[in-house]
Amino acid sequence: MRDGEKWSDGEPYTAEDVAYTFNLLNSNKALNTGGFAGSVKALSDTEVRITLDKPESVNALSYLSGTMIVPKHVWEKIDDPVTYTNKDAVGSGPFTVKGGNFSPTAYTFKKNPYYWDEGKPEIDGVRYVLITGGTQASQNALTAGDVDWMSAIFPNMDDVLSGYPDIQTVDVPSSQMAFMTCSNKELGCSGPITDPAVRKAIYYALDRNQINKLALNGQYSELAGSLYPYGQFTKYASDDVPDSPIPGKGRTDEAVKILEDAGYTKGDDGIYQKDGVKLSIKVAVMSDVSDWINAINVASQQLAKIGIDLHADQMSSNEWTQAMQQGQFEMSIYGLWVAGAEPWMFYNQFYATANTAAVGKSAWPNYARYSNKTVDDALNVINATTDVATKKSEYEKIQTQVFEDMPYIPILRQSGLSEMWSDKVTGWPTNDNVYANPQTWANPDLGIVLKNLKVKK
User: Fold this and answer.
1) Residue 128 and residue 101 in contact, taking contact as beta carbons nearer than 8 Å
2) pTM for the whole thing?
3) I want to staple 319 with a disulfide (CB 3.0 to 4.6 A). Which of 52, 140, 244, 315 is the partner?
4) Residue 100: is its pLDDT beyond 80?
5) Residues whose CB is less than 8 angstroms from the CB of residue 146 and which lie 6 or more positions away in sequence, other chains included
6) What DSSP string runs through 334-359?
């Protein structure tokens, strides 16, 4: 560790704080969301030894780099660290919450006077504000100069921003946009979407080129049928798994064949049914996310042509979040985020049995309630080895299995477009120098971006 570093309250920041944090995770399962298992000992003020209970070639990279260290002198006095709200948080980053004017609609980060990187940050602080009213309200706030930094996509983006030379944009591949399904009957999911044949029929019927053009401003990009994030991790991508990448055009003949081979017959209303149950499916979506709603509407028109009735079920963000976590939905639309040093983290988050639960209990982030022993076993092998050939073989098993089961129906790779005003400050990431993820929600990258901003003279 750096010698002489301090917390935002001026107290010394030492290896004892690191050891305390990881031991706190060990003793509080509810806090240990990264799955840390090991022992930690401070050897001096600047050295710490972490011993893992088992080999973890991938997951360890996640929790060792992603665990936010907490100050021992504060947290050792807390009776219940699981329910502690940490309203006056003491940290070690470039900004602090002290004096942050927190409210339901806005909050402020102020410059940390004890930050280790001398001369940074140069700006005094940053104010985060909530914008309601959907895409149009966000566009208006940006072009009016009411906000300096935003991550959003607008219709006719190029035309909208053409008159604003001080607004620069950066685009990085973002989440894997998918129709998420409550897929597992054994864990309490119900309805036609629990049938893999229905999920695969929807998959083949989607015309992704049309969805991209009509609903997503042409900003999204292709992805793999197994949702493999091959744009970043080509080393372990398998060419033997179908649809890597997915063709942009829909394949309605294939979709119809899948349904009819599975015993579905078309009724007088043109909708397929089986055992008296029609293929009528609701898609949960937040009411203020217009591009997702538009994507559902375009997909609905496409699926109607093959006898599937699909329609948006709009709800508030709180209602949507509750429905997703509790499994109270048939299908939803969301982005599956990509993180970590290799694809293990992506597949482990969204497909591992350990990260899901029965309907009615909170599941995060395996919202599909997906569980498959082949996938679980492969994830365990990958995490316990550094052998590239072994990893590649196991990743191919995962890609093959999840393509077959399709609990998340791939749509497109989301654009990670961010817009930044350069009239007051410079130093933003650029398309030629993405030194940190420029999306406003990215943590801890947002702190790295903000600390590198320079006031325009």
Assistant:
1) no
2) 0.85
3) 315
4) no
5) 140
6) EEE---SSSTHHHHHHHH-GGG---T
